[in-house]
Structure formats: C-alpha cells, structure tokens
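User: Here's a protein and a ligand (1,3-dihydroxyacetonephosphate). What would the complex look like?
Assistant: Let me lay out the input and then the predicted complex.
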Amino acid sequence: MPNRIKQEIDRLKSERGAVILAHSYQPGNIQDIADFVGDSLELSRIAASESAELVVFCGVKFMAETAKLLSPDSTVVLAAPDADCSLAACMSGDDLRQMKNRFPGAEAVIYVNSTIDLKSEAWSCCTSANSIEVVEAAPSDEVIFGPDRNLGTWVAENTNKKLHIWPGGCHAHSGADIRDLREKKAEWPDARVLVHPESPSVFLWEADQVLGTGGMIKYVKNSTADRFIIGTEEGMIYRLKTLFPDKEFKAAGNIVCPDMGYTTPELVLKALESRGNGIEIPAELADRAAAAVRRMTQTG
Ligand code: 13P
C-alpha cells in the first residue's frame, strides 16, 4: 500500500474519531490497517462497547448493519458498499414468518449472517462462536434455525433440542471439495485440521476440530502442533500467519468469498473522507433486530 494512503488514513482516523474494524476474512493489507481484527462476535462486542463517532467496517453488509444496531449513535460506513453475503440472501423475514406458523412452539435463532428483516423476527441471533449456547438458552424445546443448513446441522448434533433448519448456505463454504482436503491431509499427515461449521458435513467428519474463526485462533494458540489445515475463507490464513509466524498453515481447499475481497485501502480512505454511505436501519425494524443481536452479544 502506498505510504501516502496509510498516512492519510491515520490522519483522518484521529481527526474524525474513527475506528476501523475488520473481519479475519479481509485481505491482508486491510487487516494491517485495522484497529481491531476479529470474528463476527468479537467485532459485534467491540461495536457495542466503543463509542466512536465513525466506524469504518471492513467486511460485508450484515456485519456493518450489526455494528449499527449495537451502536446506533455512531455513523457506521461499510468500506466496500457493494460487499454483501450470499448466505444472508438465502432467507427472508417472510420465510421465517411461515416457519413460525408451521412450528408455533419453536423460538427462532438466526445466524448473524442475515438481513435486518430476518433478524427482527428472531428470538436471538448467534454467530458460529456461540450458536450452541444460544440454542441451549432459547426458552423452547424446539428451535427454528437459519439461514445456514450446515451450521444448523452441526448445532443439532450438539444439543438435545429439536431443530427445524432452513436450507440455506454460504456459496464459498458449500462449494468446498472434500478431495482438496484429502489431498492436503496426504501432504501434511501431521497437521491438525480445523474446519468452520458453515462447511459441508463431510468436512466436519474429517476435521480434528470444528470452530469459528475466533475459535481457530484460540485453538492454534494453545496447541503444541506446528502445522494446521484450515477449512474456511482464505483471508483467515493471512490472519493466522500474522499471529503465529512460527507455525505453518495451508488452506483446506479453494474457499474464497469474492465480496470479502472488495475492500481496498483506497475505499477505506474514501469512507473516512466522505462519511458517506452510512448504514441506515429501517425504523420499524430497528428495536426488534437490535434486541436479537444484543441477546447474541450477551450469550456465550
Ligand atoms: P465467524 O463468526 O467465525 O467470524 O465467521 C463469519 C462468517 O461470516 C463465516 O462465513
């Protein structure tokens, strides 16, 4: 990144009381300029506790919306305004209203990778880091879960509650090919295999650990192993290499989210300069969606 852009970002950040948040899937040069890099739950908790005038979010739309729900007095700008999430588009608020009619005794736990409309119909949101805990905490024996079927299936295997799962999926994780993982295991037979629960079930069966991105970092930190095969979006490899330069990491397959790659240093600078494209939450949905994400940040 040109030095001039880095200097301008630093200058505008302090001038405007801004904070830059980046998800661990972001490109390496964006992770390097962020004030905080983290998983969905950590970034939500930071957004709720920081009282920054301006939050520049480097990630995808649902992440910036979640930050705005938790920090309504801040201006929250998504650095790459076109960055959306294939999974969030899989299920609408109407879909959940229909499921509630079909399963009237069941509370709804909705993955944070979702639209505001869907969140506003949920008892609580969750992330991959606390999905089991949130489902366990729901005040019903049956739980509606969406939009991710792979995460839902994994949660169902780890709870005694009965789950009714919406059949959505993340394009990047769902498209992963198990033959790639087997090839990597043959190359590094001593490596630990860490897989995100949005991956297809066969990946989970062949993994040593099923973990969200924050869980992967904690696991590597406490592990005596030197090599790890990582089954999630490729940005995570950069994050792990930065944190643990003495360990080795290899991607389990070609898991790439194009939208996560949209953010550039130039767009971060533009977001700081313009304060434009601030996230707006429809007033009629804001209170209920905020309650669902607040419950998420307070669980697990
Ligand atoms: P984490 O909650 O593990 O950060 O994952 C976020 C995500 O969007 C997965 O696709």
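Summary: Residues 283-297 form the longest helix (15 residues).
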